[in-house]
Structure formats: structure tokens, C-alpha cells
Write a structure and sequence with these properties.
The structure holds two protein chains of two kinds. Chain A is mainly alpha-helical. Helix content of chain A is about 50%, strand content about 5%. Chain A has 13 helices and four strands. Chain A has helices at about 15-35, 50-60, 80-90, 100-110, 115-140, 150-155, 175-185, 190-195, 205-210, 215-225, 230-235, 240-255, 285, and strands at about 40-45, 65-70, 95, 140-145. In chain A, strands 3-2-1-4 form a four-stranded parallel beta sheet, with helices on both faces. Chain A is globular, with a radius of gyration of 20 Å. The N and C termini of chain A lie far apart (about 55 Å). By secondary structure, chain B is α/β, with parallel strands linked by helices. Chain B has helices at about 20-35, 65-75, 120-125, 155-165, 190-205, 255-265, 270-295; strands at about 5-10, 40, 80-85, 95-100, 105-110, 135, 140-150, 170-175, 210-215, 215-220, 220-225, 230, 235-240, 245-250. Chain B is globular, with a radius of gyration of 19 Å. The N and C termini of chain B lie far apart (about 65 Å). Classes of the chains: A mainly alpha, B alpha/beta.
């Protein structure tokens, strides 16, 4: 038995970590096989989501096939970088450091100094995406996604930024479940225990910024989404009306982030509407 | 009544790659022959993969397709059940399972219940079958009731097959693993449900249940395997591991079937004529109700 975790794991959210680990490994191997690749790369921030994905990928295909890219900005927390380096050291996977300060500053120095932290944070997330996709060519691997279910449902992610990937093994796991699985996989404790942060500015934490704890929002999301309860039923279950309503608005308001952009239906057969194929069609079916 | 050796082909088909999958079937039929199996069972859409969408027409075969006959001939002294996309003479596409025996396609079951909810979208791409009948295997000297995945989620399927004389209920599946809640057996909600269905049907029909589920991944979906054989008294005879591809050989024993049917004569006591009468009434009343509500001014 492992020691009691430092985070709160709501009972109804507890998963069978062996089953999740196995499905995730099968999924990673199959995605690569289907696309004709055998390597992945990811942005390693020092946070728990990317650390867990690095561990899952290393277990599925071997650490030598996982490239970790550390992409700090000049105000990024040095301890995050230390945590990322610790993951690289423990897994023994190749890594690369790309400081994005010059790219970001060059853009915002050009008469855009008034940019809000939100704009800057989104821009950084998209610069990291560009760096990853450029490296996917030189490394010859696919970008593996690290976004979790909680942030996807409430829209706490940057469209075409941290949400961009070839495939995502953890996108159906709530933050509480990410933590549970991270404990099972042996992710460094310092990473599991620290307050989650998008590192948008020094000292920022997700929970302070959005005003609720992950355990709380996970329990509400689980009821609304997975159990299909109504808002009234969730409130009757002991949650504050104001918070439940707010979470519901966040889900509805971020639907666009979870879908591919709609295409105007004009021709006889349209991708995503009535032209529906698996991602990679086998040669035998194309010939 | 000698025991019958059954090979469960828990494979991971390649999506849309008919030729690759045919090759794999030939190889495993060869292995099953070498292991002296009497019956080999492959999973739902083992020849094509599951999440085909618009590839369905590209991998479809007629039931007299030479490639199916090739598998039947390769089976030599064995009975084999394979599953494929079937195209009818009027170009409907079905999810089908064929019993291959003595170098021929002996029987084809077309999936009757096509799930089109949740993560499933089968009715969009396939036509539903409309017969649920058992088939006699001369080679095995047994009557088999073949069904496909969702067919087992409708009570009428095992009941009809058993009433039609099936002694072995065979369900071939592509069941996606999901709901990894810690409280579930095997860590999967799906697995827990299938285990209880298989056991219940075995006991209620006093039949052997053979469940063959695929493994591997199509797009987002991971199939969990866990193929199993349940005896007519509900005891588990064999359980394949989850997610591991393999050819698993076990056996079923006609003597055990006979013992159980004598000890628990549930089938003897079935009253299909009562069921029929009640169904007629229920359907008649339902039609009347629908007609009345259609006439009501809105």
C-alpha cells in the first residue's frame, strides 16, 4: 500500500489504476502504430499532467522513445523546471531545453506592452505548441497531449495551444484521477503534492484563479457529465447552487474548445458530416 | 460424449485491413488445428475491425465470397465462427457471423440489435438482421446459438436460441472497455456487466455460453478481451486475460450439459405458447394505443 496521498480523492472518482494504466498503454501504442510512428514528444512543464503522460508514454513505448521538451519563459518558476528535470532524470528519457522568452518578448515588445496576463499566457501556450510541432519533424514523433478532463470541460485551456496534440491518453481523467494515477505510477511526490498552476505569472495557482478546488469541481463535473444529473439534483446532493450554476455555465461556454470547427455544408460530401473515416485508412482499403 | 475442445481467438483486428486480418485468421485456424481444437471462435468483425464508418462498403463480402470459402477450406476438420461485413444481393450491409464447416459457409447470423447510442453508431452504417435461429453443427453434434455483441443485451436473444434447441450460446463481441471505477470487477464497468449476463444466460437456459471479445484499439476505443466460457450451471470454465491477444484453448463437456439439464429442467418447463399469447396481446394493445394517440387532436 502507498501512503495516503496529500490531495483529496473523492470516493466516487476513484479509479482502478491498473485498468487505466493498461488502457492508456494500449492506446498509446495503437495510435502510433496506426499513424506509422514509434516515438512521441511532449512539453514537460514540471506540473502533474505532463509528468504523468511522460510516465505513461515511457511505460508504453520505452523512455528512449519519449522526447521531453522544457519550454520555460523568463518568469516561469525555477522550481517547475527543477521538477521537470527530475522527471527526465528518473525516466532517463531524452530532453531538450527551449527558452521561449525571446520569441514571446519580441512579439509583445512591438507596441503590445499593454497585453493582459491572459493574452500573454495564451500566446505562450501557442508558442510552445509551435515549438513542439517543429520538433515533431526533427524527432520523427507525434505530439502526445496532456490536457485533463477537468480543464477540458470547464474550458481552462488555450485553443490550439496546450490543447493541441496528435492524441491524448489522459483527456478522459479528472484532475483528482490524474493525481491518483500519478501516485500509482510513481511520479515524484513533489509534483503530486504541489498546488496545480498554469504558471501564467509567478505564484499563480489554478485553484486560486478559478476560485474552487479541483476535488470540488471534479465531483460536480462527474455528476453533471458522467452521471447525467440535473443541476437541481447536484444541488440536492449537497453542493452550493452558485458553484453548480457557475460550473454549468463554464461547460456550456467552452463547448467550442472541445470540437473541430464546423465546416459550411456546400458540396455533396463533407468531412466530419457525411464523409466519415477512421483517422488512417489502410492501404488495402485505398487500393 | 467426448469433451469438445474450443479455441477462443481473442485477436486485435487491424481496422479496415481485410487482407491482413484474413492472413491472421488463416494463421490462427492453423494453430487451432494443430492444438486439435474442434471449434474456433473469432470476435465480432474480426475480419475488418469495428469502427469502420464509411469503410464499411469497402471491406464488405458476399456470403459466398471466395475469401470466406478459403477460410472454410483451411478449417479442415474444425468448425469455425468468423465475423465480417456482409453485403446482401440488394446491397444492404450487415454485421454478420458465419459458421464454417466442411469447407462451406453453413450458417450466417446477421446482428439483429444495432446499438446507436452513447459511443455506438451502428444503425447509421448497417442494416439490422431479422432472424434469431439456432443451427445444428453436424461435426460437433451440437446445436449452436450464435449472436453478436448487443444481441446479448436483449433478453429475447438467448431465450429464442435456447427454445430453438441451442445447447451452446456463442456470442462474438467487440466490446469497448470503459468506466474504470475502482469498485468494478477487473476495473471495468463493461466487464462486470458481461460477466453477469453470461452467467445468467448460462443458468437460465442451462446452456454453455462461449463469449469471445476482441482486444486492441480502434481510434479512441480500447477493447477489453476477457473472453470466457461458462458452464450450464453458471460456473466459470475458463476466463481469458483482459487486453492480451491470444488463442486460448479450453473445452466444453456435453455430459455436463446433459447432467445439468436433467438436474435443472428449466427448458423442459418453458411455456413458449404462453409467452406467444401474451406477446400477441401486448403487441396488439400497444398498436391500438399508438393508433388512438395518433388520432387524438393535438
Amino acid at each position: 500500500m502507498t501512503a495516503a496521498p496529500a490531495f483529496e480523492l473523492p470516493e466516487e472518482l476513484a479509479i482502478d489504476t491498473d485498468a487505466a494504466r493498461r488502457i492508456s498503454a494500449e492506446f498509446i501504442r495503437a495510435q502510433l502504430d496506426q499513424a506509422g510512428f514509434d516515438k512521441v514528444l511532449l512539453g514537460l512543464s514540471g506540473g502533474i499532467d505532463s509528468a504523468l503522460v511522460a510516465y505513461l508514454a515511457a511505460e508504453a513505448i520505452g523512455p528512449e522513445h519519449v522526447l521531453a521538451i522544457l519550454m520555460p519563459y523568463r518568469t516561469s518558476s525555477p522550481s517547475s523546471r527543477g521538477d521537470a528535470e527530475e522527471v527526465v532524470r528518473r525516466l532517463g528519457c531524452p530532453s531538450e531545453l527551449v527558452d521561449i522568452s525571446a520569441i514571446v518578448d519580441a512579439y509583445f515588445e512591438d507596441g503590445r506592452e499593454g497585453a493582459t496576463p491572459l493574452r500573454r499566457g495564451n500566446f505562450m501556450a501557442r508558442v510552445r505548441m509551435m515549438v513542439l510541432y517543429d520538433h515533431s519533424v526533427t524527432w520523427g514523433g507525434l505530439v502526445i497531449g496532456t490536457g485533463n478532463k477537468t480543464e477540458a470541460l470547464i474550458g481552462y485551456s488555450t485553443l490550439w495551444g496546450d490543447s493541441a496534440s496528435a492524441f491524448n491518453p489522459v483527456g478522459d481523467l479528472y484532475k483528482s484521477q490524474i493525481r491518483q494515477l500519478s501516485v500509482a505510477m510513481g511520479v515524484p511526490e513533489a509534483i503530486i503534492d504541489k498546488a496545480p498552476s498554469a504558471d501564467l505569472w509567478p505564484g499563480q495557482t489554478d485553484e486560486e484563479e478559478v476560485g474552487f478546488t479541483y476535488a470540488e469541481v471534479d465531483r460536480i463535473l462527474f455528476r453533471l457529465v458522467d452521471r447525467r444529473l440535473s443541476l437541481d439534483e447536484v444541488v440536492a446532493d449537497g453542493f452550493e447552487r452558485e458553484l453548480v450554476d457557475r460550473v454549468d455555465r463554464m461547460i456550456a461556454g467552452s463547448e467550442f474548445k472541445r470540437q473541430v470547427p464546423p465546416i459550411a455544408k456546400i458540396g455533396p460530401r463533407t468531412a466530419g458530416i457525411d464523409y466519415l473515416y477512421p483517422r488512417r485508412r489502410p492501404r488495402s482499403a485505398r487500393d | 460424449m467426448a469433451p469438445i475442445r474450443v479455441a477462443l481467438a481473442q485477436i486485435a483486428p487491424r481496422l479496415g485491413a481485410l487482407d491482413d486480418n484474413l492472413e491472421r485468421h488463416h494463421a490462427l485456424i492453423g494453430e487451432a488445428c494443430a492444438l486439435e481444437a474442434n471449434l474456433a471462435v473469432f470476435p465480432e468483425l474480426g475480419l475488418t475491425g469495428y469502427l469502420l464508418q464509411d469503410l464499411n462498403a469497402e471491406v464488405a463480402m458476399r456470403r459466398d465470397d471466395p475469401r470466406l470459402l478459403g477460410l472454410a477450406r483451411a478449417a479442415e476438420g474444425m468448425s469455425v465462427i468468423v465475423s465480417f461485413v456482409e453485403e446482401s444481393s440488394d446491397h444492404k450491409l450487415f454485421i454478420s457471423a458465419a459458421l464454417l464447416e466442411a469447407g462451406a459457409v453453413r450458417h450466417v447470423h446477421r446482428k439483429v440489435f444495432l446499438p446507436t447510442y452513447g459511443l455506438f453508431d451502428e444503425r447509421r452504417f448497417f442494416a439490422p438482421g431479422s432472424t434469431i435461429r439456432a443451427v445444428s453443427s453436424e461435426r460437433l453434434d451440437l446445436r449452436l446459438g450464435i449472436s453478436i455483441c448487443e444481441d446479448s443485451w436483449h433478453l429475447a436473444t438467448p431465450q429464442l436460441l435456447a427454445l430453438d434447441g441451442a445447447q451452446v450460446l456463442i456470442n462474438v463481441s467487440s466490446s469497448p472497455g470503459r468506466d474504470v471505477a475502482a469498485i468494478n470487477e477487473l476495473g471495468l464497468g463493461t466487464a462486470e456487466s458481461w460477466r453477469s449476463l453470461n452467467r445468467t444466460y448460462a443458468q437460465l437456459t442451462t446452456s454453455y455460453v462461449i463469449f469471445v471479445n476482441r482486444v486492441g484499439v480502434d481510434e479512441s476505443i480500447t477493447f477489453w478481451g476477457g473472453s470466457e466460457v461458462v458452464a450450464p450451471d453458471g460456473d466459470s470454465v475458463f476466463r481469458a486475460p483482459t487486453h492480451d491477444e491470444g488463442l486460448y484453448v479450453t473445452h466444453i463437456d456435453p455430459a455436463r450439459l446433459r447432467r445439468e439439464r436433467i438436474a435443472s429442467p428449466l427448458l423442459r418447463d418453458e411455456r413458449p405458447e404462453v409467452v406467444m399469447r401474451q406477446l400477441d396481446q401486448i403487441i396488439g394493445e400497444r398498436l391500438e394505443r399508438n393508433a388512438r394517440s395518433a388520432r387524438r387532436p393535438s
